[in-house]
């Protein structure tokens, strides 16, 4: 099992394998009901990361697990030809509501509705850890042209900032990512791909303290929690927010990877 997906199972490690897989599926398809909230509070991605992964020449890109299109919009803004692939109907609807001209397809990392060798690159922003590997590796390699690139990336909270680290501890926001200073994550992409390069890009998003709770409410951990668990979490996040100024900067490090299809 891929190291990123394995991290998703930490909270369900006592369950039988079939139940763990069902839990992963439930969590990765849990975002549709909060699609509007997700789109309003989740951070975007820095354009330099796109240029590092894909270069400056426009290419055809399949953006897997596109969600509400946060990263698809960055790809299009830089000039790439994007097809957004997303399994959740609610997320696809939110994407199309804001960007009716986008090409949006129902699909997943394990079942991409595109012909063989039809794209120059495959991206997966904040979604690669949900894929079932190695099935997704083979499917991604199938749709990539020879020499094309697989480019997963994550926005990782910069927990070198004390209140950000406390937010992560209180909210239990572990989602398969780590702060780059804590470890150097290795990406295993299977025999279809060469070694993965890695680059880091610092950026920040500006929030009001009232947006801190909605940010947590957009995470799968909160969405699937019981009412009692939600109430406890809301109280603890409110305590953190009360100690912050009205306008806050939430720092991130975008960790980007790039591997060529062999």
Given the structure, what is the number of helices?
A: 11
Oligomer: single chain
Query: What spatial form do the alpha-carbon principal axes imply?
Result: globular
Cα-based radius of gyration, to the nearest Å: 18 Å
Helix content: 25-40%
Summarize the main sheet. 7 strands, mixed
H/E series: HHHHEHEHEEHEHEHHHE
Report the count of strand segments. Answer: 7
Q: Would you tell me which CATH topology applies? A: Rossmann fold
- Indicate the structural class: alpha/beta
The CA-CA distance between the termini, in Å, is 21 Å
Instruction: Return residue spans where pLDDT drops below 50 for at least 5 consecutive residues.
Output: 1-20, 174-183
Average pLDDT score: 83
CATH fourth-tier homologous superfamily: Vaccinia Virus protein VP39
Description:
This protein has helices spanning about 5-10, 15-30, 35-40, 45-55, 70-80, 90-100, 135-145, 160-170, 210-215, 220-225, 225-240, and strands at about 60-65, 80-85, 105, 120-125, 145-155, 195-210, 245-260. The protein is α/β, with parallel strands linked by helices. It has one domain: Vaccinia Virus protein VP39 (Rossmann fold). Helix 8 runs antiparallel to helix 11.
Précis, in short:
By secondary structure, the protein is α/β, with parallel strands linked by helices. 37% of the residues lie in helices and 24% in strands.
